[in-house]
Amino acid sequence: MLIKRGRLRPFDGTITGADPFAVIVDGALVLDDGEVIDHGTAAAMIDAYPEAPVVDSASLLTPGLYDAHIHYSQSRIIGTFAGGLLEWLESVTFPEEARFDDPSYAAMVAREFCDALEAVGTTSATVYCTSHPVSVDALFDEARGRQLRICAGLVMMDRNAPSALLTPAQDAYDQARELIERWHGAEDGRLTYAITPRFAPTSTPALLEAAAALWQEFPSCTMQTHLSESTDEVEWVRRLFPDAPDYLGVYENFGLVGPGAIFAHAIHLSDREVGLLAESGAVVAHCPTANRFLGSGRCDVARLLKAGVAVQLGSDVGGGTTFDMMEVAAEAEGVTRHGRAPHGD
Ligand code: GUN
Ligand code: ZN
């Protein structure tokens, strides 16, 4: 038994807690064989467990952090710059992702990735693999036994990327289905599956239909994709899907907007798109370090929050420059204007 004393973010069993900004300045965790069995003010914990030795901690004692958007396959290309989003995908990202057809390479990076999450206190993440089923198996295999909560999926793409990364819609459907049956709900529910059409530009209508069919069959899966990250991308989507009212309208037309969907970035949006995000119950993953690194523009988080859109934070490694969600949070739009200082100091 051990009492760890320091600044403590209390945890009441819910994701945000009754007050997400609450901090107990002189708090303590009580550990039994490495497991947290109690927490509260230091005075109360020392009183309740008088035999336990007390160690001071300079770190913030916090429940595990959540990363709503990250690419494990990009762990090794953090900080590799190559122009804006579309150039970066083509010249840096796709060549790296092509290496994940090799199960031993995928296993090695999956190990590095899980180590990196644990090192910064991230215990839960929603993750992109690559378009190779072995990349998904490698990540889930690595996560099991580590007690990480990982939601992840096979990236589905059938156009506008190197052929080594493309999978025809029907094959992608079959492969994803098999992975869902293998992994969704595994390890006591800590491992779950995310249906992952990469984004509209690398999707034919048939691919988006395949993703939507999977989601209808497995509605408890997450659905994740990218939305309106750069202006070049938005323009490209307009040309590829001329009949859609806007970028989010492409996903909407295929039944991919609803609760359980996570849209990463969501920077360049019309009022209609913001309204639809709010009423659909979908989530926006705000990725401030990636938006800065790739020069994608400023996400008006205040506008999203005001409209009632749920916003979570993503590191977006490797477009993002850090795994550390405390650094991501510090860069997030809206923290200074909408957060308030923790009480006590
Ligand atoms: N849009 C489509 N794919 C990607 C990706 O891998 N990273 C980022 N930041 N945006 C994307
Ligand atoms: Zn991303």
Short synopsis of the structure:
Helices cover 37% and strands 21% of the residues. It is an alpha/beta fold and 345 residues long. It folds into 2 domains: 2-56, no CATH class; 65-344, Metal-dependent hydrolases (TIM Barrel, Alpha-Beta Barrel).
Model description:
The chain is of the alpha/beta class and 345 residues long. It folds into two domains: 2-56, no CATH class; 65-344, TIM Barrel, CATH 3.20.20. The chain is 37% helix and 21% strand. It has helices at 42-48, 85-97, 103-119, 133-143, 169-183, 205-217, 231-240, 247-253, 271-280, 288-293, 301-307, 325-331, 335-338, and strands spanning 2-8, 24-32, 35-41, 54-56, 65-71, 122-128, 149-153, 155-156, 191-197, 222-227, 261-265, 283-286, 310-313. The strands form two sheets. Strands 5, 6, 7, 8, 9, 10, 11, 12 and 13 form a nine-stranded parallel sheet that branches. The chain has a four-stranded mixed sheet with strand order 3-2-1-4, with helices on one face. Strand 6, helix 4 (133-143) and strand 7 (149-153) form a beta-alpha-beta unit. Helix 5 packs parallel to helix 6 (205-217). The radius of gyration is 21 Å and the shape is globular. It binds guanine (GUN) and zinc ion.
